[in-house]
Each structure stands twice: as C-alpha cells, then as structure tokens.
Amino acid sequence: MIFDILTLFPEMFQGPLTTSIIGRAVDRSLIKINLVNIRDYSQNKHRTVDDTPYGGGGGMVMTAEPLYEAVDDLRNRCSGNFGPVVLMCPQGATFDQGMARVLADQEHAVLICGHYEGMDERVRPLVDLEVSIGDYVLTGGELPAMVVVDAVSRLIPGVLGEPDAAEDDSFAGGLLEYPQYTKPREYRNLPVPEILLSGHHAQINRWRREEALIRTLVRRPDLLAEGLTEEDRRTLREIARRASEIGDTEA
Ligand code: ADE
C-alpha cells in the first residue's frame, strides 16, 4: 500500500515511520510512505501556505491552493488506483479498527495533515474522508496521520510476523483481547493461570474467549452488541449467573 502524506513538517515522521515493525515493512516494500511537503506547492514567491482569516479574528488559516495543487500532482503521477484522500482533523469521523480495516484494503491513500488554527473551508470538497483520532485537539494532523499509518499497516498481510497475528487483537473480533502471560510461571506471587500450562488447546481457547468476553463486559460493554456467537451468549449468561451468586453470598 502507498501512503502519500501531505505535511508542512516531513521531519516529524522520521522516528515513528522508520523504526520497528513499520520501518521493516517499508524496508520490505510492503508499504511505501511518500512524504510530500505542502510548501513545495505554494504558488507565491515567499512559499507561504497560510493567511489571516476573512472576517477577522486571531490566528492563521491554511490556504486551499497548495493542497489542491499537491493532490492534483499526485493524482497525475499515480499509475494505479488513486485515493481515498483523507483529511486529518478533529471534526472528522472517529478512527477505529473498522476504519483501519477499510483503509488496509486500499492500494493507496493520501493523508493530509492540517495545521495552524484551521483550514480554508474550500479544502473540504478535495477530500473523501475526514478522520479524527479522538475528541481532543492536537497542534496538527501529523501525529494522527502516524496513528493511521501504523494501525492500517499492521493489517497488511506480511507486516506482522505471524500470518494471523492481528486476528486475536483487541477489537479484531469485536472484543478486547484476552490476558497474555509469559515466563516466569510465578512473579511477585502472581501465578500464570493453570489452564495455560495444561496443553489442552480446546480448553485454552475456551478460557481465552471467556476472558475476552469478561474483559469486554467490564471495560467496554458498548462493544458487546455485535458479533456474538450463541456460545458467547451462553457464556455471558453463565458469567451473569456466577456474578449474581457472588452478590447473594456477599449480601
Ligand atoms: N488535528 C488536530 N487534532 C486532531 C485530532 N484529534 N484528530 C485528527 N486530526 C487532528
């Protein structure tokens, strides 16, 4: 997959996108990250990319022109399928695992990182999708673009070592991930659950599914609405029954 990232600060991407799993994915050509400096598309001699807002008020507003020029240029130079064009902005749809999956199916995406106090409203027709990474305001769209590249890239086949490594993730099956343990068997009086040492794969899988259900029920009940199997529903009823028994004995 090719990511074209339009930014005023290409240097910000150096660490996160050249290191660890994403860095290796780039080295192995599983993904390509093309950093495009928006300033290179400014049409004036001072190479400015912002101006004061019409109607007054403080701060500067990013101009639409360099972004249109940059996207046109990328579109003209693209030999395969182009887009979607995604604007990183706090007013966008909240990024989640489902959106990451949809983007991971694309061959190409353009991520536009906004800056300054805002953008000329006329940028909006240029974009297919506006994406926010949460209800807080950052100084720019660079960190959100890195979040999106990371979450999308790890879903691309081959990026994670194991073929199904992303399948057990939190959110992958609509549930939070079950608890994981590694050596030693006991640490600071905290033992590894016996079942994980038993070698009974079917029982281990059942335990993991149950733990994922309990964890989701306690921490993110909003996620439980979809994708439950009949077995899951039985397990949840059983968990509720056990919880009420505990309640009865404590009362
Ligand atoms: N730019 C500034 N804040 C942002 C956010 N929360 N998500 C996406 N882009 C942003």
Shape estimate? elongated
Question: How is the main sheet built?
Answer: 5 strands, parallel
Domain module count? 2
Count of discrete alpha- or pi-helical segments spanning 4 or more residues? 6
CATH class of the largest domain: Alpha Beta
CATH topology of the largest domain: Alpha/beta knot
Kindly report the name of the CATH homologous superfamily of the largest domain: SPOUT methyltransferase, trefoil knot domain
Strand-residue proportion? 15-25%
Q: Give the CA-CA distance, first to last residue.
A: 58 Å
Roughly how many Å is the radius of gyration? 23 Å
Global structural class? alpha/beta
Give the helix proportion (percent range). 25-40%
CATH architecture of the largest domain: 3-Layer(aba) Sandwich
Mean pLDDT: 94
Succession of helices and strands: EHEEEHEHEEHEEHH
Total E-strand runs: 9
Description of the molecule:
The protein has two domains: 2-153, SPOUT methyltransferase, trefoil knot domain (Alpha/beta knot); 186-250, tRNA(m1g37)methyltransferase, domain 2 (Trp Operon Repressor, Chain A, Orthogonal Bundle). It has helices at residues 20-27, 65-77, 97-104, 142-153, 201-219, 230-250; strands at 2-7, 32-37, 50-51, 61-62, 85-94, 108-113, 129-132, 186-187, 190-191. Helix content is 32%, strand content 16%. The mean pLDDT is 94. It has six helices and nine strands. It is elongated. It starts with a strand and ends with a helix. It has 251 residues and is of the alpha/beta class. Strands 2-1-6-5-7 form a five-stranded parallel β-sheet. It has a two-stranded antiparallel sheet with strand order 3-4. Helix 3 crosses helix 4 (142-153). Strand 5, helix 3 (97-104) and strand 6 (108-113) form a beta-alpha-beta unit. Bound molecules: adenine. Adenine binds at residues 88-90, 114, 132-134, 136-138, 141, 144.
